[in-house]
Specification:
CATH class: Alpha Beta
CATH architecture: 3-Layer(aba) Sandwich
CATH superfamily: Ribokinase
Shape: globular
Structural class: alpha/beta
Distance between the termini: 36 Å
Length: 317
């Protein structure tokens, strides 16, 4: 069982209080797919421009990530994001976004991907997310992510996305922006009324909070790292670790499956808690270096050790 991901493949320029990197490999699909690849096979649907380096593709495909759903646009450059972090590494300003034709992008899911059961709609334009879902007839569980730009500019389309998915990743600030609710649990509950059964609130250094059916709530702290170089992509890596772990659990029959989207109902408290642990573990490595550099040095055993460290921290051992 594999997971299909659609999202941005981008150049990032990142400024932090301590350093700066120019035009490094970035994008929501890049971080998610690399993180998920530690647990399961990953298929990517996306778009790159004529300036996209072959080396960026190689760095992803060497992980076994299937890139046949990525189209090369010979008329435009690739998506570009320039961000500047403030002194706390939590707040950041977007200096520039260059869509470079991404606003016109229409995803094409290859026929070889039609059997995809797990689908992740990484942060991208809602019309891209909707069109991707329409081309995944065998989808069973669909999670999505979004960011403030799409909440502000394409709310009607975003609400349509929410009505068709099983779970949403969103940070606490964006959850308040989307719902008008300032208390995090109420904001998550309000989002569930839009459609998704599961809402995972990303809270940066304050960890994560997941709200699901039957008043199920699971909360985890972040891993207390003393090496913070670049938080970019940590949220997408968190989602990749979590969804990758869930996909692995379904594939290995840790979870019984059926032929309906309601498979997300089979994500119980224990499974969700484990998935959040793995997402937290992977994300804690991402922020220790720029771009995908830390993930590229990572081994599965490192992820397992950190999960054990987090569990020991939680139990007070």
């Amino acid at each position: 069982m594999s997971v299909l991901c659609v999202g941005t493949l981008a150049f990032d320029t990142v400024e932090t209080p301590t350093d700066r990197r120019e035009r490094v490999l970035g994008g929501s699909a890049s971080y998610f797919s690399y993180a998920a690849s530690f647990f399961t096979a990953v298929r990517v649907v996306g778009r790159v421009g004529y300036d996209w380096p072959d080396d960026f593709t190689r760095r992803l495909t060497e992980r076994g990530i299937d890139f046949q759903g990525v189209a090369k646009d010979l008329s435009h450059k690739s998506y570009f994001w320039h961000g500047r972090y403030r002194n706390d590494f939590q707040d950041r300003d977007t200096v520039a976004i260059e869509l470079n034709g991404f606003e016109e992008y229409k995803p094409t899911v290859p026929a070889a991907f039609n059997d995809s059961e797990f689908v992740f709609l990484a942060a991208s334009a809602p019309h891209v997310q909707l069109e991707t879902m329409s081309q995944c007839p065998n989808r069973k569980i669909v999670f999505a992510d979004t960011v403030d730009m799409w909440i502000e500019t394409t709310r009607p389309e975003l609400l349509k996305v929410l009505s068709q998915i099983d779970g949403l990743f969103i940070n606490d600030i964006e959850a308040r922006q989307l719902t008008g609710e300032h208390q995090t649990v109420r904001a998550a509950q309000a989002i569930r009324r839009f459609g998704p059964q599961w809402v995972v609130l990303k809270k940066g250094e304050n960890g994560c909070l997941a709200v699901g059916p039957d008043d199920l709530i699971v909360s985890l702290p972040s891993y207390p790292s003393d090496t913070m170089l670049d938080p970019t992509g940590a949220g997408d890596s968190f989602a990749g670790g979590m969804i990758g772990f869930l996909c692995q659990a379904f594939r290995t029959n840790d979870v019984a499956t059926s032929h309906s989207v309601s498979n997300s109902r089979q994500i119980n408290r224990a499974l969700l808690h484990r998935a959040l642990l793995y997402g937290t573990s992977v994300a804690s490595f991402t922020l220790s270096d720029f771009s995908l550099n830390a993930l590229e040095r990572l081994e599965k055993v490192d992820i397992e050790r950190r999960v054990a460290d987090i569990q020991a921290m939680l139990s007070g051992i």
